[in-house]
TrEMBL record:
Major localization class: membrane
Subcellular compartments: Membrane
Keywords: Electron transport, Iron, Membrane, Metal-binding, Oxidoreductase, Respiratory chain, Transmembrane, Transmembrane helix, Transport
Cofactor(s) for this UniProt protein: Fe cation
Sequence intervals crossing the membrane: 6-22, 29-50, 92-111
Protein name, as recorded: Plastoquinol terminal oxidase
InterPro entries recorded: AOX, AOX_sf
Record-linked Pfam families: AOX (PF01786)
Record flagged with keyword Iron: yes
Length: 243
C-alpha cells in the first residue's frame, strides 16, 4: 500500500512536469534536476541530525549521498549551460517544488528510510527513461553539437573521486565515459541515473545498515544480477520531445 501511494505521488509529479514541458526539453530537464537532487539533501540533513543527537553515525552514507547530490548538481549545471533556467517562471516552479519536496522527504526519511529510498528509486527510474527516450529521438542532432565545458570538466578533466563515489554497485575508476559531443553528455547523464537507481535499491536491502559502504572504503556491494540489470517499471513518457 505504501509503495502504491509513493508511486502515485511520483506519477502525479511526472505528469505535471511532462505536461507543462512537453515541447521544452532543456527546461524540463532543468526542473527534473532541480527536484531530483533534493532528496539527497533531505537524507544528509536527517543523518547529520541523528549524528548530532548521538544516536548513530553513518559516515559512509554521508559520503555516498553527498556524492549523489554532487552528481545531480552537475546535471543541473549542464542544463543551465543549455539555457534550461533562462525563464523566471521555470526557476520559480522548480525551486518552489524543490522546497516543498525537501520537507516531504525529510519527514518520510525520519519515519521510514526504506520508503524514502524507494520513492527516489522511482524518481531516478523516470529520469533514466526520459533521457533514454530523448537520446534515441535526437541522436543525430545531439552528435552535431559540442559538449558544454562544465560536462567536460566533470566527466573527463576534473577530480573523478566524487564521480566514482555515488556508484555503489560499480568499482571505482571502472567507468570513464566519453564526452566528445552533446550526445555523449546526455548518454552519460542517462547512465548516471541508472547508477542512482542501483544505489537506491542497495539502500533498501535488509542488511543495508551494515553493508552499504563508500565505494572507496571497502568492497563494492554485489547485488543480485536481476537487481543490477532491471530498472523500475515506470512507463516511458508517451509524448515526443521536440528539439
Amino acid at each position: 500500500m505504501v509503495k502504491f501511494v509513493l508511486r502515485s505521488l511520483v506519477g502525479i509529479l511526472v505528469f505535471v512536469i511532462d505536461t507543462f514541458y512537453r515541447d521544452r526539453p532543456y527546461q524540463r530537464f532543468y526542473v527534473l534536476e532541480t527536484v531530483a537532487r533534493v532528496p539527497y539533501f533531505s537524507y544528509l540533513s536527517v543523518l547529520h541530525l541523528y549524528e548530532t543527537l548521538g544516536w548513530w553515525r553513518k559516515a559512509d552514507w554521508l559520503k555516498v549521498h553527498f556524492a549523489e547530490a554532487w552528481n545531480e548538481l552537475h546535471h543541473l549545471l549542464i542544463m543551465e549551460s543549455l539555457g534550461g533556467n533562462r525563464w523566471w517562471i521555470d526557476r520559480f516552479f522548480a525551486q518552489h517544488t524543490a522546497l516543498m519536496y525537501y520537507w516531504v522527504m525529510v519527514g518520510l526519511y525520519m519515519v521510514s528510510p526504506r520508503s524514502a529510498y524507494y520513492m527516489m528509486e522511482q524518481i531516478e527510474g523516470h529520469a533514466f527513461h526520459t533521457y533514454d527516450q530523448f537520446v534515441a529521438i535526437h541522436q543525430a542532432e545531439l552528435q552535431a553539437q559540442p559538449a558544454p565545458a562544465i560536462a567536460i570538466a566533470y566527466y573527463r578533466d576534473g577530480d573523478l573521486y566524487m564521480f566514482d563515489e555515488f556508484q555503489t554497485c560499480t568499482k571505482p575508476e571502472s567507468r570513464r565515459p566519453s564526452v566528445d559531443n552533446l550526445y555523449d553528455v546526455f548518454v552519460n547523464i542517462r547512465d548516471d541515473e541508472a547508477e542512482h537507481v542501483k544505489t537506491m535499491v542497495a539502500c533498501q536491502q535488509p542488511d543495508a545498515q551494515t553493508a552499504l559502504k563508500s565505494p572507496h572504503n571497502l568492497e563494492v556491494i554485489q547485488l543480485p544480477l536481476e537487481v543490477e540489470l532491471v530498472l523500475p517499471t515506470i512507463p516511458a513518457p508517451v509524448t515526443t520531445v521536440e528539439g
